[in-house]
Amino acid sequence: MRRFAGRVALVTGGGHGIGRATARRLALEGAAVAVVDLDIAAAQAVADELAGDGAAALAVHCDVRDRASVDQAVAESVKRFGRLDVLVNTAGGGREQPAFLDTGDEFWAALIDLNLTGVVRCIRAALPHLLAAPEGGSVVTIGSVNGMTAVGSEPYSAAKSGLQNLTVNLAARYAREGVRFNLIAPGTVRTRVWDRHPESLRRLSKLYPLGRVGEPEDVAAAVAFLASDDAAWITGVILPVDGGILAAGPLGSLVGPEESSA
Ligand SMILES: NC(=O)c1ccc[n+]([C@@H]2O[C@H](COP(=O)([O-])OP(=O)(O)OC[C@H]3O[C@@H](n4cnc5c(N)ncnc54)[C@H](O)[C@@H]3O)[C@@H](O)[C@H]2O)c1
Question: Counting Cβ atoms within 10 Å, is residue 215 exposed (0-12), middle (13-18) or buried (19+)?
Fold first, then answer.
């Protein structure tokens, strides 16, 4: 499939984990990709990898917490590739946090700034270009199941929840102008953020109805779908990519396979 032939994508947080897998998937399907990250060495390594596979790729340094840095990164990408069709907002993080009563205002501000306002900055900078995209623009934002239900880490989870409302509002506002906005809410995904918690990862794997935690490629496949013309009539959607954990809920483990009637 080359659903992105002739299209240009910008992936924030493209240097590692879910962002890296997404950059690889979009490039594999024909996109020119701007790999945008705070970690420029990682972004460069991904861009080199994509170029080695024959894709057009560019590494751009950016801190999504800084408006000038975001504006500059988008401008640099558009200057190089001449257009922008897809924005994927992956940069974010910070699940590890103190107990609720120990979270101060500065901590809240930092988590909201990175995970919510950072996405706002990227959308604001990219939108004029997405509105000009000949076949329409698409924004896919990485939220979290944390934004959908109670799993703790309140500042991070509240920011992720805010992304959902941002997504549906912008979807409604810009649908008639040809830009779609969708959000993916991943469950536990095996990236470096879990490296220091192998035991938690093992424990969590057992809770997922589909029998494992997610891989970055599971999320990348969903991003590629929502960003592509295959999803041309889909906007304002919050899509869990979560191995069935939200569907099952806390009582899900009680639901076993049906008895065979044979
Ligand atoms: N891994 C999971 O279990 C999981 C689950 C649900 C949601 N998510 C979300 O998925 C996204 C990616 O997470 P991941 O697990 O791949 O993490 P990761 O740490 O592997 O990747 C995050 C990337 O974002 C970049 N980044 C961080 N701060 C930045 C900044 N200020 N400006 C620009 N780039 C910045 C990092 O350098 C890194 O390349 C995050 O938004 C995270 O909240 C992850």
Answer: middle
Residue found under tokens 């020119």? 32
pTM over 0.85: yes
pLDDT in tens, 137-166: 999 999 999 999 999 999 999 999 999 999
**96 within a domain of the structure (yes/no):** yes
Whether 79 is in a domain gets the answer: yes
> How far does residue 136's CA lie from ligand 1's centre (Å)?
27
Task: Supply the residue whose CA is at minimum distance from atom 41 of ligand 1.
Answer: 92
Going from the Cα of 13 to the center of ligand 1, the distance in angstroms, rounded, reads 6
- Marked catalytic residue, from 79, 156, 206, 208: 156
Q: Is residue 203 part of a domain?
A: no
CA-nearest residue for atom 2, ligand 1, is 189
Active site (annotated) includes residue 174: no
Q: Which domain holds residue 114?
A: 8-197+212-241
Task: From 168, 148, 166, 167, select the one nearest 158 (Cα to Cα).
Answer: 148
